[in-house]
Design a protein that fits this description.
alpha/beta; 2 domains
C-alpha cells in the first residue's frame, strides 16, 4: 500500500512540475519576446537578428554553449561591427528563442542549421564567421565544409 502512495506522489510531482514549467515558459515568452525574426528549419524555428549596413561584408556570430547562452552575448561587439557590416546573430537550436533541435545534437547538425539559415535569409556576398567556444568549433567546421561559400552563393 505504501508503494502505491509513493508512486502516486512521484507521479503527481511530475505532473505538477511539468505544468509549472509550461506555465513559466509561457509567462517568459510574454515578458521577454524575441528581439529578432524566425526562420523555419525542418519544422522548427531558429531565431536570428539581422542589422547594420546593407553594403559590406556579412558577419555571422555564433555563441558558446554555456548555461543561458544566446546570441545576446555578442551585443557589445555587434553594436560596433554593425557600423560597417551587416550583422547576423542567431540562437542555435535549443538556445535563446530557438526551438530545440533533433537529437543527438552534433556539430554537423549545427553547421547544417547555419547553412540553411544563410540560404533562407538570402545572405549573399562575403561572409565572415565569428564564433566563441563551441560556436568557434562550429564556424571552423562550416568553413571547412563550405570553403567556397561565397562563389557558391553568388
Amino acid at each position: 500500500m505504501v508503494v502505491i502512495y509513493i508512486v502516486s506522489a512521484i507521479g503527481l510531482c511530475l505532473i505538477l512540475g511539468s505544468l509549472y514549467q509550461w506555465l513559466a515558459t509561457k509567462s517568459d515568452e510574454k515578458q521577454y519576446p524575441a528581439p529578432g525574426q524566425f526562420v523555419e528549419i525542418n519544422g522548427r524555428r531558429l531565431h536570428y537578428q539581422s542589422f547594420g549596413v546593407e553594403k559590406g561584408p556579412i558577419v555571422i556570430f555564433d555563441h558558446g554553449c554555456g548555461i543561458g547562452s544566446s546570441s545576446l552575448i555578442w551585443k557589445l561587439v555587434t553594436d560596433k561591427v554593425s557600423q560597417f557590416a551587416r550583422v547576423i546573430t542567431y540562437d542555435r537550436a535549443g538556445y535563446g528563442w530557438s526551438d530545440p533541435g533533433f537529437y543527438p545534437r552534433t556539430n554537423e547538425a549545427a553547421v547544417e542549421d547555419l547553412r540553411i539559415l544563410i540560404e533562407k535569409v538570402n545572405m549573399k556576398g562575403p561572409i565572415v564567421l565569428v564564433g566563441h567556444s563551441y560556436g568557434g568549433l562550429n564556424v571552423r567546421l562550416f568553413a571547412k565544409k563550405y570553403p567556397t561559400w561565397q562563389r557558391e552563393s553568388s
